[in-house]
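Page 42, continued from yesterday. The earlier attempt failed because a stray header line got pasted into the input along with the sequence. Redoing it now with the clean sequence only.
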Amino acid sequence: MQRRQMHIFAVWRLSFVKAGNKKTDIFKRYNLPEVTLTENKMEKLKVYTAEMATSHIDETRIINQMEVTVATKKIPFAGTDAQVYVNFGNLGKYFLNTPGEDDFEMGTIKTYTFETSFTLGDLRKTIIELGHDNSGKNPGWCVGGFRLQIKLQDSDILYLYKLWEDIGWLAKDKAPYFAIVAELQQEG
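This time it went through. Structure tokens are written below.
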């Protein structure tokens, strides 16, 4: 029977690197700077995807309605008690909340609809962020996916604008990102 050697380890913070030559037993230690994430200086998780069914549509068309669908992963502790929002830069910030419900529990899929009055070109140029305020007893959140659909003026068709799958953890205390905001689209 062959035995396999397993190495199990957890890395919390890399504080130094040791490099050298085993034969001569000469090593040098290189200390690494400590990275601290605070409320005022927080890294964003960046998750970009291509425009989908709307890429051929004229940018001057008016968007009357947006529909966002958010999936929370079906893994232990994936849900959040925090206030979740989607931010469209200067076009508006929308809090995703159904009164009286726990919207973002493990395995849930929720859809929210917003009335709007800006152009497709405006949407294409704005930053889109999905995040939360890190409040509540269990604020960490593992996002399974996010879908943004739009309805144009004088149309009954709901177009898929973009789809983001497997975004991952938005939590200040969860590796690998340690962030509570995911940037889904760059400004520009």
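Notes: The first strand starts at residue 16 and ends at 21.
Reminder to self: strip header lines before submitting.
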